Amino acid sequence: MIFGDMLAIKLDGEIRHTELVRQASTDPLTGLLTRRSFSEIATKQLAMLAERGEPVALILADIDHFKSFNDRYGHLRGDEVLRGVALCLKEALRQEDVICRFGGEEIVALLPGASETIALEVAQRLRAKLEEKNFAGIDGRVTASFGVAVCGDSALAELNRLVERADRAMYLAKEKGRNRVVLDA
Known about the structure:
Blueprint: H1 2-25, H2 35-52, E1 56-63, H3 66-73, H4 75-92, E2 98-103, E3 106-112, H5 116-132, E4 144-151, H6 159-175, E5 181-183
Parallel strand pairs: 4-5
Antiparallel strand pairs: 1-3, 1-4, 2-3
Helix pairs in contact: 3-4, 4-5
């Protein structure tokens, strides 16, 4: 009986530990990875891809006019929009892709092994899926601007540099009218 009690206590502790790790690595609002967890996973992915000589891409999405959703419908409805966007993008990604809430209304995805062609196809699919999605209680469409950065030789890929390049492309997408995909050249 004592052994059973000790085993139960150990199992309970392991379950709690697992739950704490999950909570620490998951954004509570969107259910996506946190930026910290994403950075750890992406860094490992980049090292693995570099060993294999495979390309890598990064897509940065920023919800268009997100502040206006909060201003017009309230922050709780804005949170619903953010959750809906996160789920929509996650469901439209490939299984091997890694996605996180990068900050505010920005979502980033790392696409291991993705060439420029694949990265642009994925980004366009994400943009189209989001544009098609209906959000209850929201007039009009929710769209996002997407910046894409690709590194054909992952041995040269550095996470911060990929993010900078995708961020630059995303701002260019916004300048060009929003709801579009732009590749960092």
